[in-house]
């Protein structure tokens, strides 16, 4: 079926030029298919948009789309593989993609590889955002938020002037329920149990690059850029 036409006459010239320049810049970028993996608080969510923009990749949030695509070998699953493969070929994914939160298990990784192989492509790089659990605990359990404004503080790195009180309004700060030590430890245990085998799986394929995620964000960005600029299949 023919795609619907776009009335370019009504698109502002500045938008057209901006998009044209973006596509020209992206044309020289190498294709990349990237999977960032890291525990909660590792900075993966901060780095992913930077990777997406720098390398002109599309962002594929897994949700039901990829779960359906890599489901058991049912007719629906097979159709999902084909349909989502086509989605990966849309213009925004021309230079590749970055996956968000997937795969979480070795079985999912295997099914993902099957789906990509069906399209004649494969994962180029898995970025392992490695960070000590104790560092994560300090990062996350020290976070405090002012609910009505969204202002955030950290008991060590960005403390309020008065402990437990918002600098602007004087109202009390709260901790998100997921930012407690008990919840964090449970999430980390689940992450290590499920995800370390996924890292091992891709390490055997020679596509894993470990990133020192405890460093400041700018330094992590530099490590990521070096990892993605190096030979795609270097250990």
From TrEMBL:
<keyword id="KW-0808">Transferase</keyword>
<keyword id="KW-0547">Nucleotide-binding</keyword>
<dbReference type="GO" id="GO:0004017">
    <property type="term" value="F:AMP kinase activity"/>
</dbReference>
<dbReference type="InterPro" id="IPR000850">
    <property type="entry name" value="Adenylat/UMP-CMP_kin"/>
</dbReference>
<dbReference type="Pfam" id="PF05191">
    <property type="entry name" value="ADK_lid"/>
</dbReference>
<dbReference type="Pfam" id="PF00406">
    <property type="entry name" value="ADK"/>
</dbReference>
<dbReference type="GO" id="GO:0005524">
    <property type="term" value="F:ATP binding"/>
</dbReference>
<protein>
    <recommendedName>
        <fullName>adenylate kinase</fullName>
        <ecNumber>2.7.4.3</ecNumber>
    </recommendedName>
</protein>
<dbReference type="InterPro" id="IPR033690">
    <property type="entry name" value="Adenylat_kinase_CS"/>
</dbReference>
<dbReference type="InterPro" id="IPR027417">
    <property type="entry name" value="P-loop_NTPase"/>
</dbReference>
<keyword id="KW-0418">Kinase</keyword>
<feature type="domain" description="Adenylate kinase active site lid">
    <location>
        <begin position="143"/>
        <end position="178"/>
    </location>
</feature>
<comment type="similarity">
    <text>Belongs to the adenylate kinase family.</text>
</comment>
<dbReference type="InterPro" id="IPR007862">
    <property type="entry name" value="Adenylate_kinase_lid-dom"/>
</dbReference>
